[in-house]
Structures are given as C-alpha cells and as structure tokens.
Amino acid sequence: MSIKFKNVTKEYKTGTNSFYALKNVSFKANEGEIVAILGPSGSGKSTLLNILGEIDRATDGEIMFGDLNVSKLSDKELTKYRRNNVGFVFQFYNLIPNLTAFENIEVAAELTKSPLKIEEVLEAVGMLQNKNKFPQQLSGGEQQRISIARAIIKNPKLLLCDEPTGALDYNTSKEVLELLDKINKMYGTTIFIVTHNTSIASMCHRIIKLRSGQITDVKLNKERISPK
Ligand code: ADP
Ligand code: ADP
C-alpha cells in the first residue's frame, strides 16, 4: 500500500505553550517499499510512526493509504482499519512471557481473521524448531523473529517497526533486517523502520531524515532498487 503524508502536523499544548512534535511533514512512499525513519532522540520518529499506525492522530494535514484518506476516518473506523492492515514490531519484543512462541503468535491470530498459518510464519522467520520455547529461553534476535512472526500473521499491508534492532548487536541487527527484507519480498509488505542506526537505514529503499519535527532529507537508496 502506498503512503502519502501532506503537511502533517502534531501539536502538543501544555497550558498556553504549544510544541510541535511534527510540523508540515510531507512525503510519499511506494507500495512495497522499506522506508527508514532516521533522526536523533526527540526528533519526532515515534510520533510519526504512531500517526502512521493510527494509534495517534495528527493535529492537521492529510494522510493517504493508497486511495483511502485515513485522516477522514472516525476513531472506530481507524481502529478497524488498523486491526486488519497494520502490524507492529517493538524494540523490546513485547512477547507474553508465560506463553510459548507458538502461543504468542496464536493470540494475535485469534484477534484477526488470519489468512496465514502459524507454522507458515514460524517457517518464514526461521523459528519453527523453537515453536514450543518460552521467550526467556530464546535470544534477543530469536525473540524479535517471533515478534515479527506475530506482527505478520494477519498479513498486514503495512508493517511498522520501532527501533526493532535497538537492543541487538550489529550482526543480529543485520539478520533482522535481512528477515524484514525477505518478508517484504514474500508478501509485498510496505515496511517502516525507525532507527538511530545509519547502517541499518542504508539497507532500506528510502531514507527519511527527521530533525526537530521536520523532514530534513528524503533519499532513495541507489544501492537498493525500489519496487516502483
Ligand atoms: P523520537 O521518537 O524521535 O525520540 P518522539 O516522537 O518520541 O521523538 O517525540 C518528539 C517530541 O515530542 C519530543 O520532544 C517529545 O518530548 C515530544 N512529545 C512526544 N509525545 C508527547 C506528549 N504526549 N506530550 C508532549 N510532548 C510530547
Ligand atoms: P523513544 O525514545 O522510543 O522515542 P520517548 O521517550 O521519546 O521514546 O517516548 C516514549 C513515549 O512517551 C511516547 O509514546 C511519547 O509519545 C511519550 N512522550 C515522550 N515525550 C513526552 C512528553 N514530553 N510528555 C508526554 N509524553 C511524552
């Protein structure tokens, strides 16, 4: 699904003060792209991701998902849209500790009409042999693979990853990026990855740089051929 932001602004008001976490942010991303959002702490990366994921609303501006103007949807419609179309991956995996890898994915599968089989996604992330292990029996990289499997079980059009490699060493981070790349190719998922890490960003198709709530640079990666 293609994504378009037009003059998206997020304003926080505290008393008489107002603060812009995002100010007039505009960009496009093609369907099937992997987009990196790069920027220092406090630059608005999480805010941008939360707005993309419909867990936060912009104060102003227009957001298009393909031909759908999501800025016009009601809160109820947004929730429904998110449930069916958007997957999330977090820095600290957020797996349920007393459920096995398989059961963690099963919980997510039960919440949506899942088009994919749990075994199929476990296979896709290379974790079928670990399906009966509990999160604490798995390494950080393995837990992140399970959390990616959980996010893609509903075959979302959009996958949002907030610092997915923030707690991992360099080699494991690279493997996680390679896995996201494989999922992007297998399912055509549009993927956004928030990161501080320029070498992780350099593995993506498009790199959006944020600073103080504004885009300072959008770059297409010459090393990577964008799907469109
Ligand atoms: P990043 O993810 O790049 O670290 P954030 O999107 O989390 O940045 O935050 C951007 C700015 O918006 C920060 O200065 C932060 O303090 C501010 N901010 C985020 N959420 C709120 C909020 N709920 N109320 C007030 N300010 C906020
Ligand atoms: P990160 O480093 O992952 O961006 P942050 O510490 O910036 O995390 O933000 C974590 C959460 O706290 C976010 O959901 C953000 O909206 C909220 N937050 C950040 N800054 C503020 C703030 N000044 N006031 C209220 N909430 C905030």
From TrEMBL:
One of the record's GO cellular component terms: membrane protein complex
GO molecular function, one term: ATP hydrolysis activity
Domain ABC transporter: 3-228
Keywords from the UniProt entry: ATP-binding, Nucleotide-binding, Transport
Alphabetical list of Pfam families matching this protein: ABC_tran
PANTHER family: ABC TRANSPORTER ATP-BINDING PROTEIN MG467-RELATED, LIPOPROTEIN-RELEASING SYSTEM ATP-BINDING PROTEIN LOLD
Family: Belongs to the ABC transporter superfamily.
Name of the protein this chain belongs to: Putative ABC transport system ATP-binding protein
Organism of this sequence: Caloramator proteoclasticus DSM 10124
